[in-house]
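From the thread on structure requests for the teaching lab: each student submitted one protein with a one-line request. Submission from student K.M.:

"Model O-acyltransferase from Anisakis simplex, tokens only."
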Amino acid sequence: MCSANTIDEKSDKNEANGNKIMNDTSASHHAPNHRHHHKKVVFREKQFTVRASLLTVLMEKSDMRALRNFITSCFILMFIGTMLNDTLTHKNPLYHFWLVVWNFNQLPQTLVVWLLMALSTLLPYFVLRVWSDSPSKRLASKACNFSIANSGKRLLETTRIAMKVHSFVRENVPRVIRLKGAAKDKIIISIVKLPFQHESGEAFPTIQQLAYYFFCPAFIYRDHYPRSDTRSWNVVLKYFVEVLLTILCTNVIFTQMIYPRFNPIDYTTSGVTFWIESMFASVLPGLLCLMLLFYGLLHCWLNMFSEMLYFGDREFYLDWWNSRNMAEYYRRWNLVVHDWLYAYVYRDIALLIGGKRGLKISQTAVFFLSAAFHEYWFGVALQFFYPVMRGLKISQTAVFFLSAAFHEYWFGVALQFFYPVMFVLYFIFGGIFYWVSTFIKNASAWNIAMFTNLLIGTGMFISFYSQEWYARLRCSPISSNFFIDSVIPRHWFCTEYVDESVVI
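Reply posted by the TA:
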């Protein structure tokens, strides 16, 4: 019998490979209910196997290839229309590339910061190695105003590296403790000789293993991953070109659909009527950006690195568009992050606290972390705070809250302002929708409700963040107090412009 308080409690044919929680079924549904009898929850371990991404499999069918070609033709027409408009208006067919240039003009500085962050991962590696070789049981333990894209890259890499380092330390501490036991009668050995192997036959991970883990598309550390038999640089180039094309498509959407709508607005006179109109008008560009993000990042980018590194397990997402409830949607959208949240937040907290209470608290923690970080990312990138994301019921509040927190963190740093639109959408509206979705039994009704939720959410996201972005550039500060001015949306109370010439 499945427990009703776990994230992955419903069996799923698409996840028969083991990506679910399995409960002990020794107790019959009709057995007497004794106080001393409890169902034992057995948490799954992430198993890496050689498998292709879902879209790669689906693209083998002619119907899916026809759909892809149709979408591609639509974007080709958008490019042609944009170039004709730029030629007639600005005498330059490539004028719309100004947004790409502005976003990537500080790429060298961003790469330097990334290199420093990458080198920082060696610190916990050598600390753990020295500790494992020690016989002792105890060991003492706005200067740069980056654009949105550069700020976003730095924040995403910071989070990615932190998650990888956490997994590396978390998976190797038990091994280190075993190695310390084997080395208790020996003198501390120099760490230069790699890999050092103790009498027990167990060795500390090598630098090569750490380097492979750093670049492979997985957040769960293993000494060895399943590898594909071949590597095609043509496939790598294909995915890289598709990533560039998704960036260019996003640029066209912003310059032709978002910028013309929100740049000319007088935010000293705009009100609720404009907010509602712009929210529904932003549904289409928001949906297009969401699909481009999914295809460009979760499919093309991750498959590109998988192909380069012979990484065999390429199941980075599942068919989230066929999800039967909100929990399935959140889990299937991004399996790479979901596996990390499940292994190191949900499972650890549940085991630490124990019982149904532990399951509820652990689910709340995961959701909070995700919501908060999403809000922080947008806040720093846009330089303001504005909460608008999605959430869950009490039993899964932890998972959604942590998820919303992470998203807010990323957007906050990337946008360089704090405006928790993501947090409200993810933790509050998402939580309400999840609760409502539990009453929807019809599969078609659920899909309609899910896509309606996604569409209105992306519309709110694009609309509110765009308004606050331009208001922050032009409107005078609300308060001389930095904190108050940072957390109160400026486009709500804009009364006068400081600089009307700003056009970014």
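TA comment: The CA atoms of residues 333 and 450 lie 13 Å apart. Residues 1-38, 136-143, 187-192, 383-396 have pLDDT under 50 and may be disordered.
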